[in-house]
Design brief:
about 260 residues; alpha/beta
Amino acid sequence: MQTPGSSLTAMREAGPLVHNITNFVAMNVMANVLLAVGASPAMVHAREEVAEFAALAQALTVNIGTPDPEWGAAMCAAAAVMVEARRPWVFDPVGVAATQFRQDLSAKLLDLKPSVIRGNASEILALAGLGGAARGVDAGDSVDAAEDAARVLAVRTGGVVAVSGPVDSITDGTRVARVANGHPMMARITVMGCSLNGVIAAFCVGQPNFEATVAALAAYGVAGEIAGQTAQGPGSFQMAFLDALYNLTPEALDAATRVEVVA
């Protein structure tokens, strides 16, 4: 398996255009995160243009944090373009258990076989139909509790499933990797997970989805650890995190990565 550092180099050399259909809260932060890490972000969600724009992008992210019927149709249309073009797309089932509308929309998106699904443990459990103790969009379950559900989803979609938590778990239905990088302050900043989706999508361009997802999570976590060394609170952490992503070198990433492949 290639190192996270080599994956970072490949992503930056590609400089991929990542099309994001995300929630209102995430747009600005996510765009800045993608620019800092070395990708090019676009936030396009109008149903009238979304399929046309998706055809121009190298990757797509879909986040159901603030959905409505028009956005839902746009998400499905953009994902269908990516499937047809065999380009990666990442699905974040934010708060999937909260409402029937989110569950129905998520079922349609699952049918379009996401390249990567990323969510917290409760979202992954709910998406797999195995329950989950979510509190709105927050997890009430442990990452360990969701590993079987992640495998089920990976087999069902033929893609990769990443469960975010203190130690992230990533599976393609056969292999499982755990990434222990990160900083507690990351949980105190809104849309950190939403922004991660774009980084995963960027890494997946031209790279194997499992290895790329592991590398993206490692890079994100290492940047968080670097930011935590100087941050005085959530405000300064956010600024330090963008700087850490921007300045992260492949050598520093490989030296700090804590990844365990367990299966």
